[in-house]
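Kindly inspect the following:
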Amino acid sequence: MSGSKTVEQRCRAVRQPRSPFWRSTVLVVALLMVGWTSSLAAQPNAGDPLEDFNRASFEFNLFFDRLLLKPIAKTYRLVTPGFVRTGVSNFVFNLKTPVTVANDLLQGEPTRATESVGRFMFNTILGFGGLVDVGGMLGMPERHTEDFGQTLAVYGVGSGPFIMVPFLGPSNPRDLAGFVVDFAFDPLTFIAPTELGLARTGADLLSLRERNIETVDELERTSIDFYAATRTLSQQLRDNEIRNGAPAPLDEVYGEDIYDESIFDEDFDDPGEGG
């Protein structure tokens, strides 16, 4: 019995509740920043009620990708050495550290926050401003990102309906609200010129698209419905980010509470009874 209880606890406790202090802090910020999305985000994602809009937006994003983004990404790969592309990716990732650390702390994850700060210091000082991932060379834990959308999810705020945002791609009301909050966590929002911020966003987008040329092509080639496949995959990836890569609880996988003992309380006919 004790062994089964341990298994149950492990399956359920993907994210343990945070302390009252952290819970209060995040909920206050959530109430202030989510605002108009609160009625939607309070409910679990119920299908795709905005599918007509989302499909139109998806087609627009595909047109933009095929016209500009994918050709530029392929040219970038063709003319740029691999070590340069890796350096750009490392540099952009390093710049995301302040946002990651802020959300690590809000989620009550001081160990992960400390690891992120240490890696940032190594990479910035010894890695030429973040171009070289010195932390990875030293065997530090795998780097990660966090955002305020994930923080809201940790404290129980539902995602709301799926939204395919023009230019931005798959999202939902909770993550869009978190996207706005993360601007306040980013020091570059206040100290860097607008042009530098746009350049960083462009470099991040270009690097991401270049790394996923084959992945996107394969998904499109093997999908009966490319939009539906993109929606499902993006939601699964987002859920995995929120769980920090931990396995999904079994009741979430099977769509029911597998620990509900009431299912064993039903009366079954005795095979030996009756005619």
Summary: The beta strands are 163-165, 169-171. Residues 81-135 form one domain.
